[in-house]
Design brief:
The protein is about 50% helix and about 20% strand. The protein is of the alpha+beta class. The two termini are about 45 Å apart. InterPro entries: MT1774/Rv1733c-like. Keywords: Membrane, Transmembrane, Transmembrane helix.
């Protein structure tokens, strides 16, 4: 912010170096981009993500169906196929052999992960299947999709701000190297006579 204000401070200053003015303009441009452009970019990214996720919500809610599974027995052997929800090893879940009726009316039997409270034979629990009756994960709901879109927008805005700040720092670093190089050249020109009586006379 101080460098951005320096655009006006350096304008008529006799001590102003060209790199000072460039640094001030770069800082001002970075500030404008962070204040104006990054929120717009975040909003656009969030809105686009929300549109995509809402289409996913519509598709999954159309293709996935809730059904009731009946536990036949506990599955003591480890199933070779991972559960579609990936919750087989999660605490509070247990693998059981169960049967369920698919959306098309066909009966299916398989090893699935069920709540531990549903372990006894004859217990029932809710599960989600696809159109073919295969176990699948719960469909994404609209509220969760909105939350993901908001986080995506915030993340995009922060990433853009970080990129702008990184570019600003890179430019300032290059300007500082140029200043030091000029100082070294000037010092090399006056250095041999530095400290001698009558130097520079």
């Amino acid at each position: 912010m101080r460098s951005a204000v320096g655009v006006w401070r350096w304008r008529q200053n006799p001590l102003r170096r060209r790199t000072d003015l460039v640094e001030a303009w770069v800082a001002l441009a970075a500030l404008v981009l962070m204040v104006l452009a990054t929120p717009v970019l975040g909003s656009l990214c969030g809105a686009r993500t929300d549109r995509v996720l809402q289409r996913t919500v519509t598709r999954e809610q159309r293709e996935r169906h809730s059904t009731t599974a009946v536990v036949l027995r506990q599955a003591h052997e480890r199933s070779a196929l991972a559960d579609a929800e990936g919750v087989g090893g999660r605490e509070g879940r247990i693998r059981v052999v169960a049967n369920w009726t698919a959306y098309d009316g066909t009966l299916h039997t398989g090893t699935v992960a069920a709540p531990r409270r549903s372990a006894p034979a004859g217990s029932t629990f809710r599960m989600w299947t696809d159109d073919r009756g295969m176990r699948t994960s719960r469909p994404l709901d609209s509220t969760t999709a909105h939350a993901h879109a908001v986080f995506a927008g915030i993340g995009a805005a922060l990433a853009a701000a970080g990129l702008v700040e990184g570019i600003r720092r890179l430019v300032v670093w290059r300007l500082m190297r140029r200043r030091y190089a000029r100082l070294d050249r000037a010092w090399a020109g006056y250095g041999p006579d530095w400290g001698r009586a009558g130097a520079g006379s």
